């Protein structure tokens, strides 16, 4: 594999790579503002200038400059290397690059930092980017000097509303154009552009338009300074109080990898950020996914219910046991959930099939929605493919078939997981009204929890580690982020407790034991489409 040298270190690269991309892949940071691994390279910030040494036998390209001489108390003619932007220079085999070891590069970076900060307002105490601002980071690394300009800085518009999700502060903008390129290249909706020239530059929205496409929050995510802020996160939290955990977006079957930022002091989520994964979502998330963190706490079912009345979990389990004891397996339906993890679904399917002897399996899911050619999938369920892989064959039957059969008296009992449905709610309630016993384990209030008699509170996806299989068949583990709210417990744990209440020797009591059971059940199924393949990764 061809390689280059960066500050004496051998760095392999792939054909077509720039010096910046080769360094990025090797974990070497060359400072930059405008470059982003998922966008084109305009080379307009010049922060990534490096010194590229000439091949042996060739003279170095030098430039004449004026340099201040303290001895002569005047400017004198001197020479310097012609520095090149690393984000634009193609890597060639044997190329030698000086980045952190070149004095000329260090001077150039300090000068660029000073230029960018000449008109920048010193409003760090009220800026949402404080704590994760590249201007702050690079000032400490590459400048560390006071502003020498004493003139009044250029003033520009502040708190400009670009659309329903984005607010713009032109005075903070360094004109990296990342936001413009996100609209052009990712969302393919070129609604942003740059107007004026020099230090009068600012980002503007096309006349008569708003920044309201499906990836508008990505413009804020890629902003290296505090110029673009999210109206949903703006002035809500300080990033140094937040902690992050790896999770998977629950808004559709794409299964975008994400970081969920939360405050452990109040046990609340504050924002989603994309987590890089070239095979799934690259560097991006859609607006629906970015704003879905609120579902972790909104509309939650925090306690058990029996017949519409509040109850403890033990009381609800006792009622569920009474409902299911002695029932005819042929008249029992199991309802899995495309919203819940593989662990929860595996536990319920195992209880139904192996212990209760139930053969009829259905699936509860959110209705399909809007999709696109970027990331959004029409299937608005994070684990539909996982449920199908668990059930095997043609997969679980649609919930509409259960509703139709229940209306005819085909079933006497329903044991369900989840809360969302893709059928008519009135028909669902009417069909389930005549059931002898009905139990649901769910994290949120919804049509299923309202239609069934016994409801047990399960953890949301943020409160328990789990596995979700996306539309590509990729099993992706998530971490526990928040502490469980109310009486909520992991869904698989509630299933196990129900099984033991019925007198069955359920063998799994811990996540590790459940992971072993899932691996054993996976058998010869493809590892990329089964929970057992990654269950061990999420077990503590």
Topology summary:
Blueprint: E1 3-6, E2 9-12, H1 19-25, E3 49-53, E4 62-69, E5 74-81, E6 84-85, E7 96-98, H2 103-117, H3 134-142, E8 160-161, E9 166-168, H4 178-186, E10 192-195, E11 202-205, H5 217-222, E12 228-230, E13 243-248, E14 257-263, E15 268-274, H6 287-290, E16 304-306, E17 309-311, H7 313-324, E18 332-337, H8 342-355, E19 360-364, H9 384-391, E20 397-398, H10 399-407, E21 413-417, H11 425-432, E22 437-442, H12 447-451, E23 454-457, E24 466-469, E25 475-478, H13 491-501, H14 511-522, H15 535-538
Parallel strand pairs: 1-7, 18-19, 18-21, 19-20, 21-22, 22-23
Antiparallel strand pairs: 1-2, 3-6, 3-7, 4-5, 8-9, 9-12, 10-11, 13-14, 14-15, 16-17, 16-23, 24-25
Helix pairs in contact: 2-3, 8-9, 8-13, 10-11
Structure in words:
α2 (about 105-115) crosses α3 and α8 packs parallel to α9 (about 385-390). With about 550 residues, the chain is of the alpha/beta class. The radius of gyration is 29 Å and the shape is elongated. The chain has 15 helices and 25 strands. The longest helix has 15 residues, at about 105-115. A hairpin with a 4-residue loop joins β14 (about 255-265) and β15. The chain folds into three domains: about 5-100, Roll (Ubiquitin-like (UB roll)), CATH 3.10.20; about 160-295, Alpha-Beta Plaits (2-Layer Sandwich), CATH 3.30.70; about 305-540, Rossmann fold (3-Layer(aba) Sandwich). The chain has helices at about 20-25, 105-115, 135-140, 180-185, 215-220, 285-290, 315-325, 340-355, 385-390, 400-405, 425-430, 445-450, 490-500, 510-520, 535-540; strands spanning about 5, 10, 50-55, 60-70, 75-80, 85, 95-100, 160, 165-170, 190-195, 200-205, 230, 245-250, 255-265, 270-275, 305, 310, 330-335, 360-365, 395-400, 415, 435-440, 455, 465-470, 475-480. The strands form seven sheets. Strands 17-16-23-22-21-18-19-20 form an eight-stranded mixed sheet. The protein has a five-stranded mixed sheet with strand order 2-1-7-3-6, sandwiched between helices.
